[in-house]
Amino acid sequence: MKVIEHYHPSISIREQTDLISIIVTAYNIEEYIERGVESVRNQTYGNLDIIVVDDGSTDSTGTVCDRLAAKDARIRVIHKEHGGPSEARNVGIADAKGAYIGFVDGDDWIDPDMYEKMFGALKEQKAEVAICRYRRVYRTNTVDQSKDRAVLFEGQEALQYYVQETPEYDIQNAAWNKLYKKEVIAGIDFPVGKWYEDIMFTTRALGCATRCIYLDSACYNYIIDREGSIMNAQINSHTFTDQIPAYYEKTEFLKSLGREDLADIHDYFFYKRLLQFYVQVHNADMPERDSYLEQLAQVIRDNREHYSKAYGCAVADPRDYRKMKLFLRSPKQYLCSVRLDERVIIPLKVRVKAVLRKIKHSQ
After folding, report:
1. pLDDT in tens, 25-50
2. Is residue 347 within 8 Å of residue 340, measured between CB atoms?
3. C-alpha to C-alpha distance for 192 and 40, rounded to whole angstroms
4. Residue 359 banded pLDDT, cuts 50, 70, 90
5. Which of 220, 312, 198, 232 is nearest to 265 (CA)?
6. Alpha carbons within 13 A on the beta-carbon side of 233
7. At what angle do helices 331-340 and 318-329 cross, to 10 degrees?
8. Which pTM value belongs to this model?
């Protein structure tokens, strides 16, 4: 791993000879699609193959896409029956003409120099995948944790930090904050008809790459709380049919790479997430609440033989194993412990830290 401070890659118009295919997926987002596509059109890297996949929209999304294509020859619109984002992306990949592939969700938008920066970094660092940080755009505010640097990952380092969920590097499951050399994702499809489709796509892509460049500055603007967005849905039936099975598949894939260590780390975060899911469902007002709680409890019980190994991994916090053991003894006692932490312990720690800061500043 190599940290490059104050890194600002660029590539001149004369050097923009490589074609980049950008796949924009759209379904019933008539309010957002023009902004998203225009942000791709207006890139400072101009040699683009822009593929807009209208996934069977029933509003005016498709009409807006056609209008945008009429004023820019680089835009091609594919209208298809609704099949979900995975199928739409796969259709776009199959039709892509470029040697490099990027993805944009049609309700988001990107900075004007996103692909100039990412492609410039790929070329300069001889990398196969470029990754950028992204802004989290809420209705009332935007969160941007950009830093003026880049990080070059060799071998499976990017995969390692992704699996470790290292907050310092905002790699994430998402396909859209990355630019891929086409060869790296050859043969890797998004699972059709599934939610949480990015989990295995990203894991496989990073597992295939031998050098990745991470730009620690935000270039992508991701809408967090758009009403109706799949990604904003909380625990739902797809958590059990798609998300949890994807986590199991991720474990097996990491093992197939000979990375038992990363498989254990992934399992550790997966098991922590199951307990978080349980608390979220318990606190939610939903008709499926009792059913989901029982399903989650069963998944947690089914994995108990793996806990000593996962909670013994290099990054594990021993307190998390104690929480899991408490849950296995009594889910009710575990929930009482969580409430105690939330209502008493955590606020008390916050107040103590505030007092200590005041004392320190007064000295």
Report:
1. 999 999 999 999 999 999 999 999 99
2. no
3. 25
4. confident
5. 312
6. 13
7. 130
8. 0.91
